[in-house]
Amino acid sequence: MMTPDEILEQLKQKFGDAIGETEVREVEVRLTTTPEHGREVCRLLHEMGFEYLNCLSGADWVTHLEVVYDLSSLRHPNKVHLRVKVSREDPLVRTVSDLWRAADWHERECYDLFGIRFDRHPDHRRILLSEDWVGYPLRKDYANERMVPYTDYGMEEKVAKSEAAKGAVKASPAPPPKPVAS
Amino acid sequence: MEKVQAPVPIGTTVTVERLGETMEEMYINMGPQHPSTHGVLRLLLKLDGEVITDCIPYIGYLHRCHEKIGENRSYPQIVPYTDRLDYLASMSMNFGYVLAVERLMGQKIPERAEHMRVILGELQRIASHLLWLGTFGLDLGNFTIFIYCFREREMILDLFEAVSGQRLNYSFYRIGGMAMDFPDNWVADCRAFLKWFKPRIPEYDALVTDNILFRKRLQGIGVLDRESSVNYGLSGPMLRGAGIKWDLRRNDPYSIYDRFEFDIPVFDSCDVWARFLVRRQEMIESVKIIEQALDRLPAGEVLAKMPKTIKPPAGQIYARTESPRGELGFYLISDGSPKPYRYKVRSPAFCNLSAIHEMMRGCLVADAVAILGSADIVLGEVDR
Question: What is the value of ipTM here, to two decimals?
Answer without folding.
Answer: 0.88
